[in-house]
Structure formats: C-alpha cells, structure tokens
Write a structure and sequence with these properties.
about 525 residues; cytoskeleton; mainly alpha; repeat; single chain
Amino acid sequence: MAEERLATRTQFPASAESQKPRLKKAQEFPILEKQNWLIHLHYIRKDYEACKAVIKEQLQETQGLCEYAIYVQALIFRLEGNIQESLELFQSCAVLSPQCADNLKQVARSLFLLGKHKAAIEVYNEAAKLNQKDWEICHNLGVCYIYLKQFDKAHDQLHNALHLNRHDLTYIMLGKIHLLQGDLDKAIEIYKKAVEFSPENTELLTTLGLLYLQLGIYQKAFEHLGNALTYDPTNYKAILAAGSMMQTHGDFDVALTKYRVVACAVPESPPLWNNIGMCFFGKKKYVAAISCLKRANYLAPFDWKILYNLGLVHLTMQQYASAFHFVSAAINLQPKMGELFMLLAVALTNLEDPENARRAYAEAARLDRCNPLVNLNYAVLLYNQGERKGALAQFQEMEKKIRLLKDSPSLEFDAEMVEMAQKLGAALQVGEALVWTKPVKDTKSKHRSASACKAASLQQPLGSNQALGQAMSSAAAYRKLPSGAGATAQPTKPPSLPLEPEPAAGAQPTEAPAQIRETQ
C-alpha cells in the first residue's frame, strides 16, 4: 500500500529558472585603494620595511596608479634622506590628482629641503590657488622668503597665516624676522603676544626670557624663565639661561649647580661648556677654565665667543702667545669688534711688539664707540712710548665715553679701571677733569668689561684679572627636535605641517631660519 501511495503522489514540474543556463560571474576589477588601510597601519607604526613591501605589491596590482601608495612611498624616501626620489614621487601624485593641494604642498616641501626656495615658492603659490584659506601655505611661504632674505614679503605672509589661524610656530618665525633685522623691541612685542596666546609654551617663555636677558632686564627675564621651568622643570634651555644670569651676578657656585643639570641633558653643548669654563675663571681656577673652554672650542670651532674667552683666560695666565693665537682666530670670525683688537694689542704689547700693538689699538679705537677701556689702554701704551700728545687725545676720548655712559642707571665702573685712569690722569696733569660719580664695582661680580690695565704701575697695559672680564657667556644651547604629531586613525594622507624653527645657539635665539617638521 505504501508503495502505491508513493507512486500515486502528485509530481510537480521542475521550475523554469532551474532550466535556464547560469550566467557567468562579472569580471572583478582591481580596487586601487583596497590595501591603503594596511599601508597606513605600517606607516604610523614606523614599520617602514613592511610598509614598502605592501606598497610594492599594491603598485604592481594597480600598475602604478595607486596615489596613496606613491604618496606614502615618497614620505618614507624623505625620512630616509632620499629627497630627490621623494620629489619625483610627489610630482607623480600631483599628476594623478592635479586638484589636490596636499600633493603640491609636499612637492614644495621637497624643493625647500633641496634648497630650491624660489621653486618652492612657485609651487606653494599654485597650491594657494587651490586652497586660499590654508594657513600652512602662507606660513611656509613666509619661511621660504626668510631664506631668500625678502623680509617684507615674509612678514606679510606670516601675518596672513596669523589672520587665517593663530599658531605658536608662526609667532616664532615672525619674531625671528625682527631678530634678523636687529629690532629687539618688535621681536619682544611679537613674543609677548605669542605668550598671551599660548601662556604654557615653554619655548616661547624661554625665548622671551632670553631677549630680556640680552637687554639686561633681569627681573622680567627671571620671571619668564621661572614660568618656563614651572611648566617644564627639565627645560634645559631655561636652566642654562637661569644659570647664565646667576653667573652674570657672580654666583658661580649656584650657576655650576644649574649647569650640572643641563650637562645630563645636553653633554655636548658648546655654550654649556663655555659657561662652565667662565665660572671656573670667575673662581680663579684657570686650568679648569681652559680645559672646559677647549672642550667647547672642540665642539664649536667657529664660535668666536669661545675663542674670545680662551684669549682672555690665557692673557690672565700671562700666556701671551696662546692668547694671541685664540684672539687672532676670533678676529677672523668677528672682524668688526673693537674689544677683540684691544685684547690682541694687550697680547702684542707683552710679546714686545709695540708697533703692531699700536696698530691693533688704533683699529680697536676706530671700531669701538662706547668702551672707555680701549682708549685707556691705548693711552697707556702711547704714554709708555713717550707720546704724551697722543696719550692725552686718547685720555680725552675716554672721558667723553665715560660722560655718555654716566647716564646708564646700571653702569658701574671697574675699580681697576678707575685707579689706572686716576694715575694716568695725574701723569698727564688732566686728572682733575675726570669725575667718577658712579659706584665702583667689585672685580669679582660683573662680566661687562673686556680688559683693563694693571693697576700696579704705568709700565705696561696688561690683561684684566677680574672675574669674568667681558666673558662671552651663552644662555641657551641646542634643543631637541619635537616629535611629530600622530597620524589619524583612518587611512588619510599625513598632513603637510608648517616649517619649524631650528634650535637656538647662544644667549639669544639663533638667526638660522626654520626647518620643516615631518609628521609621523
């Protein structure tokens, strides 16, 4: 029965769809961006070898048409120092996507790194046509104009960048323009605005403190440097500047304590070893001073301030041949400074070469307009050679400078200078005209007089044994480059960030324009 029932069941016909022939699957075209996420992931992890392997595979699949892969490949080449190769790849990106301003910005940046500033400006101008509200383009144009020394155009571009978007970096570069033009007051105004905008930026606070320190406004300098150390107690630029202030006021032990902290952070800083050497000089530890200064000279052989100090220390130790060597080297690097010629003349006098000493004094008197010590030492040399008329002329010139300097509220005459001037005035029978109204300073406390004559006699003008002479100390050294900003979470092109200033190298911000910062 069961078999009969199965046989008699209704049979349904097969569906018409099943009888139709199956269509072939559509051909899959390669997706150009399918591995962009992996490329981005390797790049932000700084796994560049794996990143280059994925890029190579992606470019083979897409026949070299994947813009993002080429873009990241160019970034890696630039990180590895292959600037020319990166430029060519960025140009390929610009061909693939000519309306993308980011590609043009990267092309301009590579041209900037190759030193082709005019070409970089042209490309930045093309990028500006595509995006007129990009503050980075205006900022970078300003930095390129700084390298070309077209400060007016740089000033305008940086102001445009601030109008579009205020950034610390733009303020820094704008202040640098005023420093390159020698206008400290305007530079201070710019940095004050920058500090108001970003009060916790330790670099801005430190730079402003250094500018006040350079102008001798110690209270404001100490205030801003203290604020910088409040936000960053390990900021060695601010520590070095604070140590320099203490050194200026004769607190050598406290300054050395500060410098020990800095030495842990930047053990190969030339300004640091220069300042340590002059602290030892102030403590009359001359051998230690020469050792530190020679280390500074090894690290920065073309820094004339270090050579100046080496010459000063050797004069103090009566090593006149060595002093002549270092002072001559400093003059080759800084030929417009009268005090260097005065030190050279002191060395030549003690090397028994009065003719060349006289020529050096004459050049020093011609170049210097405010230091009475130049004319005082010159007058002593002429008096010793029996030329009373010439000595009297130099003595009167010294009196003119002193009268002009009396108006300075912070001026203090060196005791050694006062005594020598009084003795020479008495010998020339003109001492009554010289009136010393300023208090005499302790010879261990200041660093603003270059070299004075020995007070023992009028026989020879010798180098000064005072604490720092006019020791050239440097408040801040090099700083570490800040790390780049992190990339975004999704695979987008790393942005082209603005140009960034270089580290400072001395008691004031350096004059070298900035470099470009790479984001990682």
